[in-house]
Amino acid sequence: ETGVTQSPTHLIKTRGQQVTLRCSSQSGHNTVSWYQQALGQGPQFIFQYYREEENGRGNFPPRFSGLQFPNYSSELNVNALELDDSALYLCASRFSPLAGDHNEQFFGPGTRLTVL
Amino acid sequence: KQEVTQIPAALSVPEGENLVLNCSFTDSAIYNLQWFRQDPGKGLTSLLLIQSSQREQTSGRLNASLDKSSGRSTLYIAASQPGDSATYLCAVRRGANNLFFGTGTRLTVIP
Is B27 in contact with B33 (CB distance < 8 Å)? Predict the structure, then answer.
């Protein structure tokens, strides 16, 4: 069974550029969430995708956007990068049934984004 | 708004000691609570998941308890080893979506 994978591992961008991060969910999982973790902090929820639609969002501006594909993999796009966007970006997946989702979340290794 | 606090922020113990990490949360209406381990610069490894209806979960040398009414959870690590050195994060899930994380406890086990 393959776990959650993310690419790339590291990325360096300059302020104002755009970036796309990718996540492949664990086999059998249909829900993907994205988190941002600044140095020394706990992860902060960005948004979640279920059945190819965003169904939850944290306190992040619209320049953070995403997609989920039919195979449940996902992308996180960030436009107009700012210095404060430098962080570890984590993807998590789980299986969500139609009702009563209390399932465990599994995280990928993360993508380290540095904005200069 | 859910807030999660972990105490202490850092802990250093000699190898072989038993230790307890603490997690508190402000809103008791949670689905479940997860404990994670994070090595420097790496992703999160799930250690234990406790549903809101449960009081504890065990996995090997790890035991996690949950007191939902008081908004507290503890992670007990028995017979600590240098390989246990990492940051330990607790996270609570309220609703269908996201996890709320604490800032973690950085554990160092000295050989």
Answer: no
User: Do residues B19 and B107 touch, judged by C-beta distance below 8 A?
Assistant: yes
- Is A58 in contact with A45 (CB distance < 8 Å)? yes
Please name the residue that has the structure tokens 């922020």. Answer: B9
Mutate to test the interface with B, among A4, A7, A34, A45 (most CBs of B within 10 A): A45
What pLDDT is stored for residue B111 in this prediction?
96
User: Residue A98 — pLDDT band, cuts 50, 70, 90?
Assistant: low
Q: Give me the mean pLDDT over the A80-90 stretch.
A: 98
Which residue among A4, A90, A104 places its CB closest to the CB of B34?
A104
Look up residue A77 and give its two tokens: 């796009």
* Burial of B75: CB neighbours in 10 Å, binned 0-12, 13-18, 19+: buried
Average pLDDT of span B93-109 = 90
Q: What is the pLDDT of residues A32-71, one digit of tens each?
A: 999 999 999 999 999 999 989 998 899 999 999 999 999 9
Q: Hey, is A69 helix, strand or coil?
A: coil
How far is Cα B87 from Cα B35, in angstroms, rounded to an integer? 11
